[in-house]
Amino acid sequence: MGYPVFSDEYFMNEALKEARQAFIEEEVPVGAVVVAGKRIIARARNMTQQLDDVTAHAEMIALTSASNHLGSKYLDECTLYVTLEPCIMCAAALKWAHLGRLVFAASDPKEGYETIEQPLLHPKTEISFGILENEAAMLLKDFFNEKRK
Questions:
Q1: Nearest to residue 105, comparing CAs of 139, 74, 57, 77?
Q2: Which of 18, 62, 114, 133 has CB 3.0 to 4.6 Å from 45, enough for a Cys bridge?
Q3: Residues with a known catalytic role
Q4: Per-residue pLDDT tens digits for 43-100
Q5: For residue 56, how many other CB atoms are within 10 A of its CB?
Q6: CB-hemisphere CA count at 13 Å for 43?
Q7: In a 3-state reduction of DSSP, which class is residue 55?
Q8: Report field, pTM of the whole predicted structure over 0.85
């Protein structure tokens, strides 16, 4: 299925490619891409098992990669596309990066940043959600169903 180039669906599909690779690598299937000027400057997926690091979430790796690419700790001109709502740790990192825009696919009612009342993201960060939500949610369900067998 093709999506118009430079659309939210196109970039979220790229994040889903990373999530699918995480699934293959037996990581929780979350993928992310950072976009600046309609160009992907960073790609990442969960790597907590592979790196034996609880902070190796897709968002954290993507932020570091994008910051290195730009030579700046601030990502106010960037959009992060991620297949699952960021957790509290990742949302705090996005705040400090002054992320311009966050787009996530599936909500995470148990561990997502929206589970707490205090706003975690930078006040200027624009938020969109639900882009390719079904695809992202199904990948997560399949992963956890496989783990429970």
A1: 139
A2: 18
A3: 59
A4: 999 999 999 999 999 999 999 999 999 999 999 999 999 999 999 999 999 999 999 9
A5: 17
A6: 14
A7: coil
A8: yes
